[in-house]
Amino acid sequence: QVQLVESGGGLAQAGGSLRLSCAASGRTVSNYGMGWFRRPPGKERAFVAAISWSGGNTWYADSVKARFTISRDNAKNTVYLQMNSLKPEDTARYYCAISVLAGRSLLREGGYDYWGQGTQVTVSS
To answer: What is the sign of the dihedral through the CA atoms of 44, 64, 85 and 35?
Structure first.
């Protein structure tokens, strides 16, 4: 069992920055891929970014490329999402997730086994 707790959300102005953190407990996450998803108001949850167990590979949704950066600190059992140049359309609840079974896509919800409760990000124009 893995528990994931997101933090760092809040209110930001367009053009601003926020840094989300996802702290894991219950299992060392250094061997597993992790990702961030988001659910905008009234929409389905969608992929944002993912990172391989080593941090050597990262993937991003087209809508956040060059603005968001995913990283991990395995010593702290934590994954981060640095969000720059925020836009109102980035407003959403952001969730982190971990994939403990190998061989699945990290770009899809079905590739993950445990999810956090999410943290709200609101970007004002």
So the answer is: positive
